[in-house]
Design a protein that fits this description.
This protein has 71 residues and is mainly α. Helices cover 73% and strands 0% of the residues.
């Protein structure tokens, strides 16, 4: 099973997230405090999904290598 909540919480502390930094950090913040983002007119669920997508893209090479190792 994939625990993206824990992955976002861990990854948002990483110093080198590149282009994914803002999406990952915002996703974690939106997951922790969704009412704040709703008050700004943003959809917390969409922000979290954007962060998950950014996380997958940033670390795609690890996912691909893992899949190749199991074949």
């Amino acid at each position: 099973a994939e625990d993206y909540n824990a992955a976002l919480a861990l990854a948002e502390k990483f110093p080198r997230l590149g282009d994914a930094k803002d999406a990952i950090r915002t996703a974690h913040a939106a997951r922790v405090n969704p009412r704040f983002y709703k008050s700004m007119g943003k959809d917390p669920a969409q922000l979290v999904q954007n962060g998950i997508d950014a996380l997958k893209k940033r670390y795609e090479y690890l996912i691909t290598e893992k899949k190749n190792d199991t074949v």
